[in-house]
Amino acid sequence: MPAIVLLLLNIIGIFTLSILAGRVFRNPKTAAMIFFVTGVLYAINAPQGKYVSGGVVGNIIGNMLIPVALYFLYRALSEKDSVFAGLFLFSAAGLLFTHHLSAFILIYSVAAIVLAYLALNFTKSFKIVGGWFRIFLKPFPIAVFLLVIFYFLFVFTPSYFNPEAVAQATGEPTKITRFGLGLDQLETNAGSARLILGTFGFALFFLAARRKEYKFSFALSWAIVLLLMSWKPGWLYVNIPSDRIGNYLFLPFSLLAAFGIVELMKLFRKSSTNFFSTALLFILLFFAITDGLSDSAEAFKSRPQFQEAMQTFHSADYLAEKLDSSQDILLKDHVNIYGDSWYKLFFMKDYKYPLSRGNLSRYADPTKPRETCTRDMISEPDSLEGQACFSETGVNYVALNAQLEGNSFEKYPDFSKIYSSNYLSIFKRNIQ
Amino acid sequence: MSSKIIIIATIIFLIVSFSVLFVIETKNHDYDYKKSWSVVYFENPRDNSLDFTIENHEGEKSEYNYEISIDEKKISDNKIEIEKGAVQKIYPIIDLEKSARVTIEVTADDLKYRIYKNIQ
Question: Looking at the partner chain, which of B25, B37, B114 has a beta carbon nearest the beta carbon of A307?
């Protein structure tokens, strides 16, 4: 059920991107082509489908709300409509409450769009800013703004809304995972067909569109700022894992790829040699479809893992019922347990509960030492480091894959084994 | 007119495909539908109680053999039949005079499940 709701949100996200494309490029064919570059290509693979199966709620909602907010902003500015300005503030605030990374991306995107538009219309910039004030300083946007401020101050303030969290996310990159992605990683994040077609669409739009119009800034600045944030984050003082930012690249690049395909088709239709143009179009679409679908095909499991997933859910249900989460600390193995991300849903405690052994590469960072306790308590529970970690973190329950560490853990006398299924073992630490 | 057809067709397709997905997902989220596994666990992991539960999700009625040992020394050996999808609670009565490791080993066909507690 939760996965199906996420799938529905993901599909709505594709629709919102299509509506935005239709509005920016003023062409229904481009809006329809969005369904091809986001719905058909990479429907299963990163960064959309895997969020559905992985239960990444925030990103899915973020992918849906970013185009919505930009759509309202585009209409507010281009049509000088204060109702859309209010809706922009409302959807942007919704994003702030739902997913901080998406909100961060939206803030950078809006800043890039606004600055690019002002730079391209430099001589009229004061007049433009005055016009924006006239749009936003109307009763409806002001009422929405005040409502949002009231909600922030008196109902619920998001935990990351403090100077410390902002300082952590901005500034010079502090970890190796935040120094930016190479071209191959960008390709993995956006999808090679989408990246190539998007780059082509970018070049075509850059040459064809009038630079002083809003659509020029919206389509191109959005792509440029996300590209810089994921490729050279240090230039923009972004201190967030680059691959997480790279996952948003598909949004502007899908827009540009759809535009690129539609324009290519027009070019081929106008071409004098029918045979040559048809052959070229066929080759292009063959590449786009096979490349996009093969990426998705790789993401499919060779066999369904419902049995493992259900055992994971059963163990989570058991622990949620038997443990006192105000006293007991649980550590689970994210590396070898399938569907373990859903554990959080059974406890409904906070983001860091239960603790999790992450992918092993995450513990190696030449730029600064990383927390290793979640790894050591599973890999070497008997070592001095492991023992110190248990004392430090208070972990007294460990959930493991039964076939892997689940068997080897039985040799440690400090633990009782309280749960055993085909797929999962749960241990309780006796020494407090 | 054509845009209305597109919208109506999209809504119908979404409703149909999501209904099918709901049915498939509901079936797959059944512990017993096309699955074969069992689980053994202590009823009270936080104290010294040895009450434990066997759940049969093997897809058929199965016979389970369970042995209870204290410090590797077998003290009881029993058999129990559990219906498909059923949950069987077992309440062993053991009188422990000193600290020991109590192990419960459950076997069914070629499957083996082991749980234990270090009783203080």
Answer: B37
